[in-house]
Design goal:
Blueprint (H helix, E strand, L loop, with lengths): L1 H19 L7 H9 L4 H25 L5 H24 L2 H20 L17 H22 L4 H12 L3 H25 L5 H24 L4 H27 L1
Length: 260
């Protein structure tokens, strides 16, 4: 039954990723804890990190083929973020599991607020990290990358909803390029967090296999649905933000009850 629930959870996460282009990974930890029944929040975080990394890599290939990845900016942001993710995941392992879940719920509410935020699609299409632009872009890429990576590692999420606005703020690139470039960081952060948790034996590899299998299937269905519902994607994203907020409030409510 646990394997079936893990597969269903993967399908749900993959479907959301395929449908609205992000956000599904933030549900991975709550699904593993409250639906699949993983008793340790740390094992749930480690397990979800692997699934998030694999999903990001699959989506990165498609964006790279479409030319939506600004590689120099993406690689610098990811490199800085990997250092942050290593630090964040190390701190996360030392943190009390129930308190970590409580903070995770608060983060979900913050992410939902970002999703509700009116994001503009404009930006500088021609932005590039070169020898001439490095003095202006490099400090921001390093600062935002390290901060987002630390949050991603601490909570065991891909951090796409944090990486995208971070890259846009650091470079001013348009949304579509920020989404494509962010997947480099999401993959790198997920792998870094997964390795750190694997060293401590905090990954359930059987659940990883079922979760990823379900995620691949859900992603295919989600991408098909996205094509048919393209005119309603903003409404779908808003509805999903409400779900993320609701789950976040539920986790906070449960978390407060366990530590009081």
């Amino acid at each position: 039954m646990q394997d079936l629930l893990a597969t269903f959870s993967g399908i749900l996460v993959g479907f959301v990723l395929g449908l609205i282009g992000g956000g599904g990974s933030v549900l991975a930890v709550p699904l593993l804890v409250y639906l699949v029944g993983v008793s340790s929040p740390h094992v749930a975080i480690g397990t979800s990190a692997v699934a998030v990394a694999v999903s990001a890599l699959a989506n990165l290939i498609g964006h790279a083929k479409a030319g939506n990845v600004k590689w120099p900016c993406a690689l610098v942001f990811a490199a800085a973020g990997v250092a942050g993710a290593a630090i964040g995941s190390t701190l996360g392992k030392q943190f009390d599991g129930q308190k970590l879940l409580l903070l995770f719920g608060i983060l979900m509410i913050v992410i939902a607020a970002f999703m509700f935020w009116n994001r503009h699609s404009g930006g500088d299409v021609a932005v590039r990290l070169t020898r001439h632009s490095a003095p202006r872009l490099m400090p921001w890429l390093l600062a935002y990358g390290t901060g987002v990576g630390a949050l991603s590692g601490f909570f065991g999420i891909g951090g796409g909803f944090l990486v995208v606005p971070g890259i846009m703020a650091a470079t001013g690139m348009p949304m579509i390029y920020a989404i494509g470039s962010s997947l480099v960081s999401v993959f790198a952060f997920g792998i870094t967090t997964a390795i750190n948790y694997a060293i401590s034996g905090l990954i359930d590899w059987v659940l990883v296999a079922f979760f990823i299998g379900g995620g691949i299937a859900g992603g295919v269905v989600g991408r098909i649905a996205a094509q048919r519902l393209s005119t309603h994607r903003q409404a779908l994203a808003t509805a999903f933000a409400a779900i993320v907020a609701a789950v976040g409030f539920y986790i906070v409510w449960r978390g407060i009850g366990t530590i009081t």
